[in-house]
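Q: what does this look like with adenosine-5'-triphosphate bound?
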Amino acid sequence: MVSTLSHIREIERVGMGAVSPRDAPVVQSWLRCLNDYKLDPTIAQEAYIVPELKLREHREQAEELIRIGRSGLETLFNQIAEQNYVLLLSDARGVTVDFMGDPTFDNQLRRAGLYLGSEWSENRAGTCAVGACLVSGEPVIIHQDDHFDTSHIGLTCTAAPIFDTLGSLTAVLDISQLRSPTAKASQQLALHLVASTTRRIELANLMTRTRNDWVLRLARSPEFLDVDPDAAIALDGSGRITGMTHGGFGALARAMDLGGLSTRDVLGQSISQVFDIDVDDLPRFMRGRPNGERLLRARNGLVLFASAIAPAVNLRSPATPEPRVPRALRDLSRGDAAMERMLARAAKLAAKNIPILIQGETGSGKEYLARAIHDGCGGEGNFVAVNCAAVPEHLIESELFGYTPGAFTGASQKGKRGLIEEANGGTLFLDEIGDMPLALQSRLLRVLSENEVQPVGALKARPVRLRVLSASHRDLAELVKEGRFRQDLYYRLNAATLALPALREREDLGWLIDQLLSRIEKENGEIYRIDKAARAALSGYDWPGNLRELSNALRVAAALSEGGLIDLDCLPEHLFAESTTDTSQDDDDLRQALRNCGNNVSALARRLGVDRSTIHRRLKRLN
Ligand SMILES: Nc1ncnc2c1ncn2[C@@H]1O[C@H](COP(=O)(O)OP(=O)(O)OP(=O)(O)O)[C@@H](O)[C@H]1O
């Protein structure tokens, strides 16, 4: 290590204008210390630690940044702690607001100023990494006797700036060692680590502060685009730039071919002024798209890879934000307006854990919907379905509520956990709730209103936390009038109802047919095709048994198909008979049509798009 005296002499020579072999940032900082801050290199000053109260103020102001940066800092510290580095996060005034270091060296670190509360502004501490970085806004290594003050010439410090989303330098990240190899080059890796951590902290900060904006992440190569992009910019709903990381600013400045530009000049500019896209193109850059489609071309020809993250809320219609309908629910329909409205309502109600009554004709998918609500809410706990109409009345109480050992004659010695408790933490689906015996309705009401269940024979109720969904194809209001359903339970259940449309009303019947068929294909390990006439028949039928009937009809059709082709012959007769009424004429018309086809049944069948057997059957009936 150099002697104190020769270090002071060197600084003085530089002050007199001598050429120095040191890095330019070091020389510039020395000159600032001498000329601007009037520091005297012969007076050594120990590191300054701000008083406790002052430190609290600094930390409070930097609280959000400390929180956002914390995981990045911890990751960095884990990488460097073995080499006896300490980590300092300082605010824009150079005060260390977060610190990580080995507590065994606490005293030494505190004396050296590598500690919480130490102030490393250039005008107080002389040339140091944090101070030089705050002035230049550039990453810097201040190694050993690069320091101005002789008290610090044992340290090596490497720092990089952290900019806020509007481009102001808001903090500095520094890693330092008390002792290090003599060569400054030994700190190059430290410089790289610090710079990449600050890049990630800026990205995390941008993502947190611009949740309602698009974020466009940029990289020179596609591999790290989604995991560790070089830069990012935030855009509002009309495509105007609202924020950026420091790298994002660099990318914009390059793309705009403008040197000496400040972030203020870039903020508010439209993305289409800089790049060959506008805001409507952003979905094309979202994750999952092939990298080839994620090339972003600047107006000046610069090419980058870009990955877009959509805003947390819909910017296009802020007054009516789209409710987030979980995938499990969205998968129940494809374009049927009534279904889509109902599913959006289901998502909202389910998120608030409100008991829901599902109404719909038999087989319209009430249980299927209940399961989708359960899955859509994270699928935690069990989904327990009870068909109140199917369980014998004398068993339903013990099935639902469970019982204690020996609660009644014939009860198991071990007692039994009821289905309500089985569903604890999950979903209880009470199908055909209209068939629930009156006496049990009041006990069910208690489960709904007080979240507790009392097994048969138990003295105390047990707390339960569950989602209760129920269904009925009966008119519960009518049952209330007849005195067969409790009014209070009805009101509680009826507060939130979901009405499933009948299959014949659904606009997405064609899609449902394909869905059900592909499920059958998976089960059977075969591929099926439906010919035109059969599809017309399936679409024309009014399906009183709804999805259950359709599903069964397709299952039978698949079994009867030859070579995987489902034609009219594979469909149940009643359905098929109806379709011929739809697709052909009345009896007279049929005779006339046959004559027109030269009494050729095959020709008429082709013309009507039905199978020959259909015509034969109709003719047989006519005779
Ligand atoms: N969206 C759907 N997609 C595919 N299959 C469905 C869908 N909805 C229901 N199904 C199928 O239709 C059949 C009837 O559904 P579900 O049992 O849910 O109807 P339900 O209204 O509860 O009937 P019920 O009134 O008789 O209790 C089941 O085989 C189910 O798998």
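The first strand starts at residue 48 and ends at 49. The two ends are 117 Å apart (CA to CA).
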